[in-house]
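Need residues for this backbone.
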């Protein structure tokens, strides 16, 4: 007795093979970085090393930072007051959004499917392999100004490749200029503290890449 195979099953198997081949065609992944986001800083708890009320005058600090102040990645006040949320996610793809060129150039002739089906496969593959940036506001404490920085994180709850094995990792970052309250070492009575400029890197783009392993 000859067993009949569902056309939908054949198409599904064909799509899986073609998507795996398409993943190999996409050789546009930038080199990832394993050093972001920045780990939490362990500050000296000595209250004598904290800036005083006069040191935290907004006008003075705004003038010290000048044009380097970045309202997109930093905030003077708590972002949860007035912005509604401290977490944002670049998620979802608009149907009106143009498919990137590298996905348009993928060869799906082996599918032997209608052009409409190919477009859906390309858009699905684009959506599946995307690595959106999860933006979270982080409170750096009173020794930084602005004290709130919008850090980026890459989602790692599932693989972003076909076949599985690759995950979203940081591939690009930007540096946010902040003021850092710095106290010179020495006798506490003679200590000298002042605001100095510091560059704080945050993830601005995530990409699909292989996990790296460290050998002990």
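Answer:
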């Amino acid at each position: 007795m000859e067993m009949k195979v569902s056309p939908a099953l054949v198409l599904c198997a064909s799509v899986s093979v073609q998507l795996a081949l398409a993943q190999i065609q996409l050789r546009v992944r930038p080199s990832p970085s394993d050093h972001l986001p920045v780990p939490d800083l362990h500050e000296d708890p000595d209250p004598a090393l904290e800036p005083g009320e006069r040191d935290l005058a907004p006008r003075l600090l705004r003038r010290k930072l000048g044009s380097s102040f970045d309202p997109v990645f930093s905030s003077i006040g708590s972002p949860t007051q007035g912005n509604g949320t401290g977490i944002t996610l670049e998620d979802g793809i608009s149907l009106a959004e143009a498919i990137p060129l590298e996905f348009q150039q993928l060869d799906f002739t082996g599918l032997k499917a209608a052009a409409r089906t190919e477009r859906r496969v390309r858009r699905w593959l684009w959506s599946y392999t995307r690595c959106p940036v999860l933006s979270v506001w982080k409170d750096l404490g009173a020794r930084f100004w602005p004290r709130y920085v919008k850090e980026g994180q890459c989602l790692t709850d599932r693989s972003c490749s076909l076949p599985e094995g690759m995950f979203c990792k940081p591939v690009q970052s930007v540096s946010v200029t902040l003021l850092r309250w710095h106290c010179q070492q020495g006798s506490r009575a003679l200590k000298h503290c002042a605001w100095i400029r510091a560059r704080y890197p945050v993830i601005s783009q995530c990409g699909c890449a292989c996990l790296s392993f460290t050998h002990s």
